[in-house]
Amino acid sequence: MMITAAVLTLSDKGSRGEREDLAGPLIREMIAVIGATVGYYEVIPDEKGLIKEKLIDYSNKVDLVITTGGTGLSPRDVTPEATREVIDREIPGIAETMRSLGLKKTKRAMLSRAVAGVRGNTLIINLPGSPKAVREGLEAVMEVIPHAIEKIKGSTEDCAVKEGTQR
After folding, report:
1. Cα 90–chain centre separation
2. 113-127 burial string, b = 16+ CB within 10 Å, else e?
3. What contacts 108, CB < 8 A, 6 or more positions away?
4. Which of 21, 64, 136, 140 is most buried, judged by most C-beta within 10 A?
5. What is the Cα–Cα distance from 130 to 22, expressed in whole angstroms?
6. Which run of H or of E encompasses 48?
7. Among candidates 77, 78, 125, which has minimal Cα distance to 97?
8. Where are the domains of the chain?
9. Which CATH superfamily does the domain covering 3-148 fall into?
């Protein structure tokens, strides 16, 4: 299955050219493994209204939107709030899995406020901003992304996995 994707990096410094975005390109590289092609990539400041606007726009164009950054505790970290305001349904298990597996590496994983959900026919996943956290978070959930997108698009195939096989 071919998956179209958008990657949105939320970083005040990155948007001003003061910091190189390492997380966005890493996401592009990692999701290629599941057949995802990134058609849109942007680095924008941590502005809630702008984040919402981009999530809405991309959700009309792609199957998957992955954000990186803005999921922490600083006053400018507003990605989860922007995401919750535009999604139709939340998928708590995705963020819970990323935090759960992250806790095995660092207690700071519990501070991530990342969310995941569906807007229309698009899966939206928030990831932290650091490349290390992006790699760990995506590795935790990547294998379920194609199946999630199939279901979001209306697949009626059973979700059960046959004994001895992996999906």
Report:
1. 12
2. bbbbbbbeebbbbbb
3. none
4. 64
5. 8
6. helix 48-59
7. 125
8. 3-148
9. MoaB/Mog-like domain (3.40.980.10)
